[in-house]
From TrEMBL:
The keyword Transmembrane does not apply. GO terms for molecular function: ATP binding; ATP hydrolysis activity. Pfam families: ABC_tran, oligo_HPY. This is ABC transporter domain-containing protein. It comes from the Bacteria. Transmembrane segments: none annotated. It comes from Litoreibacter roseus. Residues 5-254 form the ABC transporter domain. One of its GO terms (biological process) is transmembrane transport. One of its GO terms (cellular component) is plasma membrane. The lineage of its organism: Bacteria, Pseudomonadati, Pseudomonadota, Alphaproteobacteria, Rhodobacterales. Signal peptide: none annotated. It is a peripheral membrane protein.
């Protein structure tokens, strides 16, 4: 399959304002990230809180401007597009957020919430709007009779279904799913994951799936990118591939507990995560790594891609 998305050396630097007592500081939230996503595939991005997953998602949709790098979507160089061209392209690349409460205006009926993308983009749907809305609600497993309800009248899981219906309204080919089930109860999570699986096969969608839950990513995705402090430290070409980076291995070992309520989400790792404003030279994982050597403290390991299974480690497993 051809690539729908090609991301090259994508970076984002944030600078905190200085004060009389502290100098301005800057950090790389995303640092030199590259990957391809083929049409119809699902790539998972996993890592601890603050590793740059959401920033990566926002950069890809150009909701924020990168400090460097390139993003090609279906052959289009996104960074060369004007704001108007970008707005039109965004109809084909939509995002589903973790918090369905903030994604829907509480004053809107569900019909209006689902119809809003057509208004924003100035697109006239093929069918009359009420039929279009009913079709979208049905597509996400909701009774079209709910169209006149308000968000406070439905459950969290139903709200996330509405969020997905909105994202699908303009028939996108790429969905960026940013922790779409993290705020839901476990049983509802499973239903939403099932819905996303059905939609993927029915509509031929391509997903970028962001999560801190490696066992969920292993279940749902075809390939996995593991991020640590802004960088991809391992790119697993399939979910059965054994971890080669010590960080990925620890994540895998820490998520074997089948009951997600008992599962510690990520990593009983020893050692401190270094401040992203003050990264040590060499590998950022060095102080938490059982395999660290002097080389790891002096040279940042590059992401080697010799085998198609890329790992950024001087001493991979
Ligand atoms: N607008 C911003 N200004 C300054 N720093 C930011 C901004 N957005 C994110 N950051 C910083 O960038 C880093 C990466 O944040 P990001 O939200 O992308 O991580 P994440 O992996 O998605 O975390 P989480 O799972 O908690 O959402 C963090 O250190 C965060 O504090």
């Amino acid at each position: 399959m051809p690539n729908l998305l090609e991301v090259r050396d994508l970076s984002k630097r944030f600078t905190s304002a200085g004060s009389a007592f502290r100098k301005a500081r800057s950090m790389h939230a995303v640092n030199g990230v590259s990957f391809d996503l083929a049409k119809g595939r699902v790539i998972g991005v996993v890592g601890e809180s603050g590793c740059g997953k959401s920033t990566l998602a926002r950069l890809i949709l150009r909701l924020i401007e990168p400090s460097g790098g390139a993003v090609h979507f279906d052959g289009d160089d996104l960074l060369a597009k004007s704001p108007a061209q970008m707005r039109r392209l965004r109809a084909r690349m939509q995002m589903v957020f973790q918090d369905p409460y903030s994604a829907i205006d509480p004053r809107y009926t569900l019909a209006r919430a689902v119809a809003e993308p057509f208004e924003v983009q100035g697109v006239t749907p093929e069918k009359p709007m009420t039929d279009e809305v009913a079709g979208l609600l049905e597509m996400v497993g909701l009774n079209p009779g709910l169209a006149t309800s308000y968000p406070h009248q439905i459950s969290g899981g139903q709200k996330q279904r509405v969020g997905i219906a909105r994202a699908l309204a303009l028939r996108p080919s790429l969905l960026v799913l940013d922790e779409p089930t993290a705020s839901l109860d476990v049983s509802v999570q499973a239903q939403i994951i099932g819905l996303l699986e059905d939609l993927r096969s029915d509509l031929g969608l391509t997903y970028l799936f962001i999560s801190h839950d490696l066992s969920l990513v292993k279940y749902f995705c075809d390939e996995i990118l593991v991020m640590y402090l802004g960088r991809v430290v391992e790119a697993l070409p399939d979910t059965a591939a054994p971890a080669r980076h010590p960080y990925t291995r620890t994540l895998m070992e820490s998520t074997f507990e089948p009951d997600p309520k008992k599962r510690r989400l990520i990593a009983p790792l020893e050692g401190e995560v270094p401040s992203p404003f003050d990264l040590p030279p060499g590998c950022a994982f060095v102080d938490r790594c059982p395999n660290a050597s002097a080389l790891c403290r002096s040279e940042t390991p590059a992401l080697s891609t010799e085998t198609g299974h890329a790992v950024a480690c001087h001493h991979p497993i």
